[in-house]
Design goal:
Length: 261
């Protein structure tokens, strides 16, 4: 499939993506500086944040992104990076926690109130987040949206924004480490995760035999296999993160007994 939008529009899209990702890196660094008086920040969270941004950058700009405009397998590699790997890395970097540490008390309370509003609560419910994530993928690949995405820069940008944001919200709802005043129970989150894994695998199998319009059979089969097996790698990481959180939350707390002598 060959994109029909001009080089100028594509260059503008890639330039905008890179600026936004640089702003994301700068914003995290600013948060680290502003919260320096609150105690040390785990270094691995900073590494995770920048690794997530790099995954998004690789999917949206550069050689892989260019190849994805004409090849389904390259597109699927970008999907795994943008919709699964990047959200997991960014979520585990705990950006909301860092923001709450860095902001003045009044603004931090405003953010906390925002997280408790009904729209945010509904959007971040595990079931809703799972439906938005999996449903968006089925809509993309089983309708004409995939072809339209390669004909319009605006549609292309909207689809990729949805893939990243839906992946982030879903991952945060299932294995988020940031404060969540209405986090779902472990059984609910586990059930939603299993449902999403099943929907993702079923879509990969569907694409193996029913590729989007304009995608060759050979390219579709390789791309579908990449989606299936590559998705398994991130799926295992999600399962490990979920059960690690369950294990930590279920451990008995050690009480410190102070001597009165």
């Amino acid at each position: 499939m060959t994109p029909h939008h001009g080089a100028t529009g594509w260059d503008l899209f890639e330039g905008t993506v890179l600026v936004l990702l640089l702003l994301g890196a700068a914003g995290y660094a600013t948060g680290l500086w502003a919260a320096r008086h609150r105690g040390p920040w785990p270094p691995h969270r900073t590494v995770l944040w920048h690794a997530g941004l790099l995954c998004a950058a690789a999917a949206l700009a550069g050689p892989l992104a260019e190849a994805a405009r004409t090849g389904f397998t390259a597109h699927m590699a970008g999907h795994l990076l943008l919709g699964m790997a990047a959200p997991l890395l960014l979520v585990l970097a705990a950006p909301v926690t860092l923001a709450l540490r860095a902001l003045p008390a009044a603004r931090a309370r405003t953010v906390s109130r925002l997280l408790r509003t009904p729209p945010v609560r509904a959007l971040t419910h595990p079931v809703v987040a799972g439906l938005l994530n999996a449903g968006g993928l089925w809509l993309l690949y089983t309708t004409g949206l995939y072809g339209r995405m390669h004909e319009s820069v605006g549609v292309h940008a909207a689809v990729h924004a949805h893939v990243l944001l839906a992946g982030y919200v879903f991952t945060a709802a299932v294995v988020g480490v940031d404060p969540d005043p209405h986090r779902g129970s472990f059984p609910l989150r586990a059930a939603v995760l299993v449902g999403f894994l099943a929907a993702h695998s079923a879509l990969a199998k569907h694409l193996y035999g029913h590729p989007p319009e304009g995608v060759g059979t050979s390219d579709a089969r390789v791309g579908a296999q990449l989606m299936y097996y590559g998705g398994d790698v991130v799926d295992v990481a999600l399962i490990v993160a979920l059960f690690a959180q369950w294990y930590v939350s279920g451990r008995p707390r050690t009480r410190v007994v102070r001597s009165t002598a």
